[in-house]
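Just scan my protein:

——
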Amino acid sequence: KTELEAARQQILALQTESERKSDEIVTSWAAQEEMLAKLRWEESERRKLHNLVQELKGNIRVFCRMRPLLGEEKDGLDEIRHVNIQGEKTLELIKTVDSANESIAGGLNKNMKYDFEFDRVFGPTSSQADVFAEISQLVQSALDGYNVCVFAYGQTGSGKTFTMEGGPAIENDESECGMIPRTIRQIFEVQEKLKEKCWQYNLQASFLEIYNEEIRDLLTSDTTQKCEIKMSDSKGTDLHVTNLKTEEVTSEGQIASMIRRARKNRAQAKTLCNERSSRSHSVFMLRIEGHNTATTETCCGTLNLVDLAGSERIKDSGSEGMRLTEAQAINKSLSNLGNVIMALAQKNSHVPYRNSKLTHLLQNCLGGNSKTLMFVNISPKEECFSETLNSLRFATKVNQCNIGTACKKAAK
């Protein structure tokens, strides 16, 4: 009996100890969750403050993204040696010289290092979701009534179209969705939440390309209609494109369909640099009009998501005939984009927006009332070193370009 009582006492003591430990575990889990929530809130606040600082600076923000090695590119290569991503904002480009060639050019042919700093640097392992997390604040700005422009720049084959639109399987694989479908998803999610606060939104989308200095509508196969850039008002602050098909967006699924139609109509061709090289600049434009039924407040934001044609040296791309004409038109418009950026950076009285259809269309995004972000996409291939260096140098000039602070716009 005494032994049985002692065993009972021992079991009770163990049960009490077990319950105490369980309570401690629950308390520590709750504390951990609270800490994680606090960290998430602090990260969100950090992003907001970072955006605010950038807006106050009035500079064009620049994000650098390097794609991973794909397919045959991986053969014999276990790592990317010429690009060293040092942190969230910095990267180093390293040019190494073979010891056989080192003695020929003496000191001129030494190993070279080039350091670059941007607002954010994404390595080959960064997912589409990681990238979108950094631009989601801009999407919110468009809903708040600001003009927003995001454009992707870089050599052909560096992953611009993948970043902006997504991979070929976006309808089946959500992780491949690019900035355009993710933007629409966020807009619909926020729009749903804002219904409680009496906000109603109307979304109008259009999709165009600039091919050989001609504007083409990517949502229609009718090529007889001529599209031109015109001023919307006497002040000349707002621009619109004539004869451009505009579709009301009422669901996410519509965007996947629009991207599919646009891809079918967009000019593409094979070059030595890329199997499926985009031969035009594509621009997805979304007009967001908001109306508050309780306060009668209105807002009107526009979102421009631009996938630029690939910058490439004509001798490297092997372009001939029609491909050569296309390459010359691409390089000319990208060169004009560089001239506009330089004129803005130097605060010149005249900025040559009208020298190309691209800069004319993006006039408000580059030098006016807009929050603008540029992706500079770079290739992980070492043979593309000089193109990568050119792209990063151009991106640095863009990052230093002050375009002033954007203002909120009310719907007319």
